[in-house]
Design brief:
alpha/beta, Rossmann fold, 2 domains, 3-stranded antiparallel β-sheet, globular, binds guanosine-5'-diphosphate
Length: 460
């Protein structure tokens, strides 16, 4: 090999090493928002191949520069791995099934190969590579952030204000009676564990109650690797009990502080601080089905989640770590439960739930976007003739495996009033995934827009 060839090869290798980059993408949302389906689809879209017809908005694919994606098999054994293979199997069963939902945090690493468009990378490398880490974690954990700026007493007041809302009141009664009967001077392990179990039952009841989104502490509901840890012996006493200087109130105050220090702060420092970009999935349609109180609480929960992305120079988060999330996508999931002409209204509704058109908002630290998507399509859309007029409709399989063709109704582009909910019931049905084989592209709605917003600039 001549000296010139050697230098060229070395500089190519050097370029390969220095120009290869990493991106950590966080995926979150409250339980049932669609995280598992989303990551399964995202990974399949990236590893399936370069199908311009299937991902028309994703420029690296459209421009035929995408060379493919591969799962990285060298992931550290200590890191819980997102079960992509099993999830794809669920979708291929007869009849197809949705894969089981997220229970804690997990990760999957991919390497994406592409031809760079121009610049140094294009000159030095025949193919470039982006290492993508996808991190899945429950949105419930972000709901814990406000606890850092509350005292235990304030948290008890906040919780009981929430539990007195009409859609929670009934479920909370038994726990309230249990607390009233508790000996406030008994802070023994047994007493704490017993009441924590009762509170856990209540949280699970809330979790199954339509529209009860805001459940704290998040780790009691979705403990992840912390299941059974002593600081998870935590529950809100009645505000008047928390104000007493009893042995129980003192013990719970200690557990509360320990939860903040040993659970919430490390989560932000170890996981959140390392994310570069973030996707937040929101299931607005189930909230509409559940009524006015559900919409109100979803809005409140989203406002709390947004606090994790609001980090001005003086914010609590900036003091805890150096956040670097530069792009946040809010995606209204499961848009295939509605007809396509309703998708615009769905994304406007989500913008209203987030309180403002995000581009005008004060989250200067990150670029934000809102869109309506379906990670894995469960319906096909079309038209039926009604009185000589073409009416939009969707067709899919209901949970009882019955084929259904229907117009699911209009999506409001604003949060409807309490009065409107009294007169109108939304009924967006849950559907089974469409039949699918692994050799085929996975049907979706706007996953190419998601990929373009999240990765497009990194694959230039
Ligand atoms: P997670 O708890 O956030 O991980 O939520 P999952 O991804 O497990 O989704 C919960 C349920 O929502 C699934 O079992 C499906 O019934 C439904 N779902 C999720 N994504 C989609 C989608 O793209 N389209 C449709 N029609 N349903 C979806």
């Amino acid at each position: 090999m001549s000296l010139y060839q050697k230098i060229r090869q070395q500089s190519r290798e050097f370029g390969q090493r220095t120009l290869d980059r990493h991106l950590r993408l966080g995926v979150t949302g409250l339980s049932g928002a669609g995280k598992t389906a989303f990551i399964t689809s995202l990974v399949h879209q990236l590893t399936y191949g370069d199908q311009p017809a299937h991902l028309p908005f994703f420029s690296v694919v459209r421009e035929k520069r995408y060379l493919g994606g591969q799962l990285d098999q060298r992931q550290a054994l200590s890191v819980p791995r997102f079960p992509i293979e099993q999830n794809l199997q669920y979708l291929q069963q007869e009849p197809p099934m949705w894969p089981p939902s997220t229970k804690g945090w997990s990760q999957l690493s991919l390497s994406l190969r592409y031809k760079a468009v121009s610049g140094l990378r294009a000159k030095l490398q025949s193919r470039s590579e982006l290492a993508l880490n996808i991190v899945d974690y429950p949105g419930e954990w972000l709901l814990d952030l406000p606890l850092l700026s509350m005292s235990y007493q304030q948290w008890c007041e906040f919780s009981w204000r929430l539990f007195r809302q009409p859609h929670r009141q009934e479920a909370a009664k038994v726990f309230e009676q249990h607390l009233q009967a508790c000996n406030q001077q008994d802070a023994s392990e047994l007493a704490l564990q017993n009441t924590t179990e009762q509170y856990k039952t209540l949280l699970h009841q809330f979790h199954d109650t339509a529209g009860a989104y805001l459940n704290q502490p998040g780790r009691l509901l979705v403990p992840g690797e912390l299941a059974g840890a002593p600081m998870l012996q935590l529950f809100p006493l009645l505000p008047e009990q928390a104000a007493e200087n009893s042995a129980l109130a003192k013990k719970l105050e200690q557990h509360y502080q320990s939860y903040c220090k040993n659970v919430i702060e490390p989560f932000y420092q170890q996981h959140f601080a390392r994310l570069d970009r973030q996707i937040i999935l929101v299931d607005c349609l189930t909230a509409l089905n559940s009524g006015y109180a559900a919409m109100q609480e979803l809005q409140q929960a989203l406002q709390l989640i947004l606090k994790s992305f609001h980090y001005g120079p003086t914010s609590l988060l900036t003091r805890l770590f150096k956040p670097k999330i530069s792009k946040v996508l809010f995606a209204a999931s499961k848009s295939d439960h509605a007809t396509p002409e309703q998708h615009q209204a769905l994304s406007l509704l989500l913008q209203q739930l987030l309180h403002q058109p995000l581009k005008l908002s004060h989250y200067q630290a990150a670029t934000t976007e809102v869109m309506a998507i379906a990670a894995i399509r469960a319906s096909v859309s079309g038209y039926v003739q009604v009185d000589g007029l073409a009416q939009p409709c969707i067709r899919g399989e209901s949970l009882g495996q019955k084929s259904v063709t229907y117009f699911p109704g209009e999506i409001p582009d604003k949060i409807p009033s309490a009065e409107f909910f009294k007169q109108h019931k939304f009924e967006f049905l849950s559907l089974q995934p469409l039949r699918w084989r692994e050799q085929e592209p996975l049907p979706h709605v706007r996953m190419d827009h998601v990929l373009q917003f999240m990765l497009g600039d990194k694959l230039e």
